[in-house]
User: Fold Membrane protein from Alkalibacillus salilacus.
Amino acid sequence: MRETEDSKYIQQHLANERTYLAWIRTALAIMGIGFLIVNVHFSTGASVGGQSDQLVEMIGILSVVIGLVAIVFSTVHYVRKKKQINDQTFTSSLHLVWLISALMLVMAGLFFAYFYLY
Assistant:
């Protein structure tokens, strides 16, 4: 059996994969929360039209967008880190963390606006 480039750094690659899968789970949870809020709003009769419906729709759309952004960026991040591990040029990157954090703060603001106003 021949040794591959990846096999030199097995633990690092496995950690990279675990991190990637954690980002995927987080993205799915974010999308699920958005669907839950929208479902609860429209299923409980809280829907009276107007601004509350628009706000809930924005929360639902934003949660899906944040989830998709997290999936795309985490996949790109995973592939870059894999190459960096093999090349021994690993550098940590905070762009994905800052982006998702900023988008989550916007979504949290919408949640508070919804619960405060309605």
Summary: The radius of gyration is 19 Å. The chain has one domain: 8-117.
